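Researcher: Checking consistency across runs. Here is PLP-dependent aminotransferase family protein again:
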Amino acid sequence: MFPFKTSIQFDRKSNQALYLQLSNQIIQLIKSQKLAPNTRLPGSRTLAEQLHVHRKTIVACYDELLLQGWIESIPKKGTYVHRNLPVLHQQKLKDDEVFGVNNNADFSFYKSSILPKIPTEKREDFMYLNDGISDTRLTPIDEIARTYRNVSSKKMIYEHLSYGSTYGNGTLRNVLVEYLNSTRGLNITKENVLITRGSQMGIWLSAKLLLQKEDVIVVGNTNYVSADFTFLNQQVKLERVSVDKNGLVTDDIEKLCKRHQIKAVYVTSHHHHPTTVTLSAKRRIHLLNLAQHYNFAIIEDDYDYDFNYNHAPILPLASHDTNGNVIYIGSVCKTVAPVFRVGYLIASKDFVDEAAKLRGYVDRQGDALLELTFASFIKSGDLDRHIRKVMKIHQQRRDLFCKLLNDELGGFFQFETPIGGMAVWIKLHPDYSWDTISEAARKHRLEIGDWRQYDAAKLGHNSIRIGFATYNEEEIYELIKRLKHAITSTL
Ligand SMILES: Cc1ncc(COP(=O)(O)O)c(C=O)c1O
């Protein structure tokens, strides 16, 4: 008889019922062939006595195993391990592997050789440079939580808890129509709005709908690196044009149009990513005219529209587009906090319809409760109040950061104080290298990050983008101190 008494162990502190603990252990014994097919199992009374449990536990366990097909009950004979069970070929796991989380899949799958992994791990004692993100300590989390609670306690909420529109929540779409028409000078209706989970989803959807293998998309010779990869993942030809103090050089785009059929131009017109420059009015008009003439799409990524320190925000290209050339993309992720994955893609109705359809197959729908929360947050004026509040703080941080950069590190860097956004574009003196400095910085608990991402075109400009908005005054002093120590230690 199989030694159940020594093979089965119960954890009486566990939340798992005893009959399930027993059935799981019997399954393991069957899988490991310690209990072979056709083995007779003891009667419920006998096994209950052996294991010191109630007979009902054994009956429930056998019922469970019968239901799952591991055992069979043969009338007048007894209960047996199912005679037709095939042998499960299990690989012996290495010591550090836990069952079910083997490190290597036993099937082939496609790994992208284009998309790099997005780094997420952080050490607590380190300071990390970023390319311009907000300080989450300034997030109006209480107001948002209160709004979320109010929204969720309404009677009509139940309809929003089910499957909904792939276009996003209707209330938010309506609120955005009003908000974007009045703040961005757009002239849209609800039909032109698709709610996304942040700008990145808008870029991805646009790439999927506009681009296929060998298609040409134009970007700056410095460009937002995630957009580059999103396009490259479509196996496109990325044509890079120069960026100067007036933004993308549209004359270069015109020259390209004469040579190739261009499907799209990606532009961060408000504050070019990474250099922070603004696309001039002349070039805006030129680009719109080119788009109309050569029938290409302009993907306008207005990722940090809200933060302008010396002037009113500049209206996007989308506000001048009457021909349906512009796909306008934005989100609350920079303005409020990256965790709130609420963004929008604004375009002609036919494009929005197709994007909504596609979105439904990667992410069935957005988070309707969060979308309703933001609808209310925007409509009540809370978003604008938040923007006004943080803008003052950002401006002070920008001023301090740029002052210290100048006072403490002026001999090493060249930069313009940005008129908007949350980052500075900093050129390191050609005698020094970011490679050496970032290695030295690590010794001072400062992570500079992948500085090469800013020079995908290998121009050798020796510049990187450093965000200032995330750090308070004390942290800005600390950051500059660490950077200075790092640089001077390399001399
Ligand atoms: C230029 C630019 N576009 C888009 C994004 C993505 O933003 P979101 O968090 O809204 O997806 C970022 C984020 O860093 C960005 O810098």
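Researcher: Does this match what you'd expect to see?
Model: One thing to look at in this run: Residues 127-136+385-488 form a domain with the Aspartate Aminotransferase, domain 1 fold (CATH 3.90.1150.10).
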